[in-house]
Write a structure and sequence with these properties.
CATH class of the largest domain: Alpha Beta
Protein name: Glycosyltransferase 2-like domain-containing protein
Structural class: alpha/beta
CATH superfamily of the largest domain: Spore Coat Polysaccharide Biosynthesis Protein SpsA, Chain A
Number of domains: 3
GO molecular function: hexosyltransferase activity
CATH topology of the largest domain: Spore Coat Polysaccharide Biosynthesis Protein SpsA, Chain A
InterPro entries: Glyco_trans_2-like, Nucleotide-diphossugar_trans, SAM-dependent_MTases_sf
Shape: globular
Largest sheet: 10 strands, mixed
Strand content: 15-25%
Length: 536
Amino acid sequence: MHDTPASDQLAEAPRQAEPLVSVVIPTFNYARFLPEALDSIMLQKGARIEVIVVDDGSTDDPASVVQRYPGVKLIHQENRGLAAARNAGLREATGDYITFVDADDRLVEGAVETLLAEFRRKPDCGLVHGSYRSVDADWRAIWQPKPVSLGDDGFATLLERGNLIGVPAAVMYRTERLRSVGGFDEQVPANEDYDLYLRMLRRFPAASSDRVVAEYRYHDANMSRNAPLMLSSGRDAVRRQQDAVHADGALKRAFRRGHAGIQRYWIRSQLRELQRALRRAPERSEAVGQLLKLFGQAPHHFVRESGAVALDLARKRLPTKLRWGSLRRTEPLSRDFGYDRGTPIDRFYIEDFLGRHSTDIRGVVLEIKDPTYTRRFGGERVARSEVLDIDAGNANATIVADLNTPASVPSQNFDCVLLTQTLQLIYDYRTALRSLVDALKPGGTLLLTVPGITQIAHRDLGHTWYWAFTRSSIERLMAEVMPGADVRVEAHGNVLAATSQLQGIATEELTERELKVRDLDYQVIVTVRAVKPLLP
């Protein structure tokens, strides 16, 4: 093992409350990729970081790269494979938490903070995970899967639906719990991460974040390009759980579906790869060879999936005629946000959010314009209700102030502030939000909602409707105005909800299930729960 002197960055005196996170980077002849992986880790905040690079018998001198990063530990071992390299890092790690970043991947900024926040939210978890995006060799985005949640029974979910987590770098573990299951199985040639997730989730709960925390880089040497190996190892990972499912009917069904699903996934994946390879002569023979191996492993599934893929391709080339129905119009169904048809779409998300956090609405509560939500969701928990408005003629207003003016609200006076669909109407929204944060008592809660995709009420509010927001913009804004706070930002909506919001279709015309599907490409509203830090 080689220890280099601690860098100013890694040796910087940490705050007492910050946990220690170990980041293990296994590398085998990937020295050319190491700098970008290490750089991404050096940017992480919110924890003390211990970095361990495990050289799995490389011949490309990773030490020459590591020595440029003082404070990073380097372990050398004979070539024993990826699982053994990760376990070597696990044995060396001293952190309370641990994550594994392959040398050709990288963490995105804020990844460690995101995953630690999930552990704070659910401290009994053995692992937490975020989402990821796939990039090419030059870090250009290729594809980003939709965020997934493992639900209340992560073991059953992953058993039935396969490796939804996808990328090892998107996962953080409690170190001792990872050690308690024996770490990675060094006898597994591939899919060792999926095998580990299943073993962990048999014993411990998990939590999911829909934020992207890692980037997975595609290049010619990726193990995941070997479809026959990934199929056989994934199928074996499911089979190893057979003893855990024999007495449970639901788990038995999940086992059968998972076993079939893995075969279906890798056969379809390779069939689509063949379609691409047919246009690139040098790759045709390799793609055909892998297909023949897949046929040998699962002939029945191969025949069935070949037909399904062919049908999918035909459908894409021959799209069905679009049926516009009531929506082929340049005038919306309602210009009143759907109030004239029922409950507006954004109100569904607002009221669902406030209902889930109703216990925060307590003590002295401040709301804007009227106390409707304070009364509805706070009830007897509210000791005093205050209403703020710029309009002195508002009979409900107990505080008349302009939030564009700094320090316009009494300081450290409220246990809870409700700010729903208002920030877009304030030009200097940073000043407004800082004033409201200052108005909270230490430990007080801000419940905030802002619009994303929406109609603008041009006739009534067009002259003061300045902004629309995204989850990313609100995350950055909250970090600016409320540093150190416990903040949870969520985006709500999907293409159906967004279309309905724009058309003025009412909540009652959709189902709750349709409304609760989340697609980050269509953010109808963004919600924030933020707890102000206690005074030191």
